[in-house]
Amino acid sequence: MGNPKSRIVQSLKENVLTIATLAGVLAGVALGVGLKSSSDSPWSRRDAMYVSYIGKLFLNMLKCVIIPLIIPSLISSIGSMDLSLSGKVGLRAVAYYMATT
Question: What is the pTM of this model?
Fold first, then answer.
């Protein structure tokens, strides 16, 4: 057993992505609550446009990342199967992917 401080530091290093995700969620909630309570009057179209632009930009960036992650994953998983099974599963996977996107 090591020093308790070094174990905590090691645990934080191993879980940095989880901690960053949680911090992002908390920051988003705080920002949302802060913006909602910043004024008593309803938002103008211009205010809503500024907030929606950031959301649309984020969703477009996610769309750009998803395709390069999904296609190689499908190819590698189908390629690792035996030939008799890979034809059926490959066709079903491609059909399902095309139907849902």
Answer: 0.49
Closest CA relative to residue 74, chosen from 98, 51, 57, 58: 98
CA-wise closest residue to 93 among 73, 67, 66: 73
Crossing angle for the helix pair 4-14 and 16-36, to the nearest 10 degrees: 70
Half-sphere exposure of 7 (CA within 13 A, CB side): 4
Tens digit of each residue's pLDDT (9 = 90 or more) over 44-90: 888 788 888 888 998 999 888 888 888 888 778 777 777 666 677 77
Positive or negative torsion for Cα 86, 89, 92, 95 = negative
